[in-house]
């Protein structure tokens, strides 16, 4: 059986060594933050549907967020006379921990004007694993997306 002084020395040394292992170091905090952001990014990956209308016009948007941070947005708008128009947009996306941000690099197959690069930024709140609400504070509107299976078309 170890002597009381040897036990006390071991206890003090263990306390000193473990005192620096609380995870509060900047590198540990940074890794923790990066891990949380990666998990959040994975939560967004997939196919999302947004439907909305005004009067006799109805729109369906399919937003596909890829793991490589690219996106494709397919849009189908039907007017009151049944006329349909479709568009395809592409770009890159990221989630900063609060906002889902999209930068459009192609608008219906054409590069947008460098003077007016389109961005979409929404503060996001997940209501469930398969549904989130985004708030655009600049344009003062709210959007709702629901998760869909891959290959869903507008």
Q: Which structural class matches the secondary elements? A: alpha+beta
Q: What's the helix-strand series?
A: HHEEEEEEEE
- Which percent range describes the beta-strand content? over 45%
What would you report as the Rg, rounded to the nearest angstrom? 24 Å
Main sheet: which strands, in order across? 1-2-3-4-5-6-7-8
Overall strand count: 8
Shape: globular
Uncertain stretches of 5 or more adjacent residues: 4-28
Largest beta-sheet characterization: 8 strands, antiparallel, barrel
Helical fraction: 10-25%
Give the overall average pLDDT: 81
Span of the ends, CA to CA: 75 Å
How many alpha or pi helices? Answer: 2
In short:
With 154 residues, the chain is of the alpha+beta class. The protein is 23% helix and 47% strand. The longest helix has 19 residues, at 26-44.
State the main characteristics.
alpha+beta; 2 helices; 47% strand; 154 residues; globular
Topology of this structure?
Layout: H1 4-19, H2 26-44, E1 46-54, E2 57-65, E3 70-78, E4 84-95, E5 99-107, E6 119-128, E7 131-136, E8 141-148
Antiparallel strand pairs: 1-2, 1-8, 2-3, 3-4, 4-5, 5-6, 6-7, 7-8
How would you portray this structure in words?
The structure is a single chain. With 154 residues, the protein is an alpha+beta fold. Helix content is 23%, strand content 47%. The chain contains 2 helices and 8 strands. The protein has helices at residues 4-19, 26-44, and strands at 46-54, 57-65, 70-78, 84-95, 99-107, 119-128, 131-136, 141-148. Strands 1-2-3-4-5-6-7-8 form an 8-stranded antiparallel beta barrel.
